[in-house]
Design brief:
Strand content: 15-25%
Number of strands: 10
Number of helices: 15
Mean pLDDT: 90
Low-confidence stretches: 16-22
Largest sheet: 5 strands, mixed
Shape: globular
Order of helices and strands: HEHEHEHHEEHHEHHEHEHEEHHHH
Oligomer: single chain
CATH superfamily of the largest domain: Periplasmic binding protein-like II
CATH class of the largest domain: Alpha Beta
Number of domains: 2
Helix content: 40-55%
Strand order of the largest sheet: 7-6-8-5-9
CATH topology of the largest domain: D-Maltodextrin-Binding Protein, domain 2
Distance between the termini: 49 Å
Structural class: alpha/beta
Radius of gyration: 22 Å
Length: 295
């Protein structure tokens, strides 16, 4: 009888430990304050929770973007987030944009592992490079097609960009050195206010991204980077290696997102959220369902 009670006690303790271990499985996913990152992280959360017992905590819209997320990743406050190859190569690693996109990505993976014990799991399929945009009507009136055209007329125009763009070497500072911009005025503003500022005439030129959903809505023209200042900014997933060791199932789950999202897909989804007000979790789930990754 005593042996039976002891066996039951041991089994109860084991079950309790297993249950506790399952309950402790949590993953913190962060995003920058960008619509497409909200969408991507919702997809990541959905896939992980549909295919594992891991609870995902989203920390979306972290101000400062990479400036604050990367240190938080290294400190262990964040486990995983979507990043862009050009940002990682130039802003984080302080490398010059001397390689083509494929070579850069391969070297990037090596340096991230050696320096930070971080792994680039995959690329998602779209390139969201920086872009300068101006009202289409102004571009036609002033005959501006390229960054060089803009440079020759920049003293007549006002520029607006988010804070992160002014802090990075692959942002405003390097761009100004490359093209010799001398804008009439330069304004720093929250990322969500740029299009409103253009629409209200507070600025004439803004920095944006090639997958921005609002470019069409506000009648903006994306100018051509004729001196090829900006490198490729392919979006991918970065994660701490110790977390991958703890949750090895994450690799196979998130590899389902490899090359899943085209630039056209991302522009469409950004537009649906920013312009039509679609619900992000619903949009993310519908996209995964359309791709056959969830029911």
């Amino acid at each position: 009888m005593k042996k039976t009670i002891l066996v039951f006690m041991i089994l109860a303790l084991l079950l309790s430990a297993c249950s506790s271990n399952e309950e402790s499985k949590k993953l913190v996913i962060a995003s920058k304050p960008m619509t497409e990152q909200y969408i991507i992280t919702e997809m990541m959360k959905t896939l992980i929770e549909e295919n594992s017992h891991i609870e995902v905590v989203l920390k979306q819209g972290i101000g400062g973007g990479t400036s604050n997320i990367h240190p938080a990743l290294l400190s262990g406050d964040i486990d995983i987030y979507p990043e862009y190859t050009g940002t990682a190569w130039m802003f984080v690693l302080k490398n010059a944009p001397s390689l083509n996109s494929d070579e850069m990505y391969e070297e990037l993976k090596i340096q991230y592992e050696e320096e930070f014990q971080l792994e680039w799991l995959n690329l998602l399929g779209f390139n969201n490079t920086f872009a300068l945009a101006i009202k289409d009507s102004v571009a036609k009136e002033m005959n501006i097609e390229t960054y060089s055209d803009l440079s020759s007329l920049s003293d007549k125009l006002k520029f607006g960009g988010e804070y992160d763009f002014f802090e990075r070497e692959d942002g405003f500072h390097g761009l100004r050195l490359k093209y010799g911009f001398d804008f009439l005025d330069v304004k720093e503003m929250d990322i969500g206010l740029k299009y409103m500022a253009v629409d209200q005439g507070e600025v004439d030129v803004i920095n944006g991204f090639s997958t921005d959903g609002r470019l069409k809505e506000y009648g903006m023209k994306v100018l051509r980077d004729d001196k090829n200042f900006f490198p490729s900014y392919h979006c991918g997933i970065v994660m701490r290696k110790d977390v991958l060791e703890r949750y090895p199932e994450i690799r196979d789950i998130l590899m389902k997102m490899e090359m899943l999202i085209s630039e056209e897909d991302m522009i469409r989804m950004n537009y649906l959220v920013e312009v039509e007000g679609k619900d992000i979790p619903v949009l993310a789930r519908n996209f995964l369902s359309e791709k056959g990754l969830i029911e």
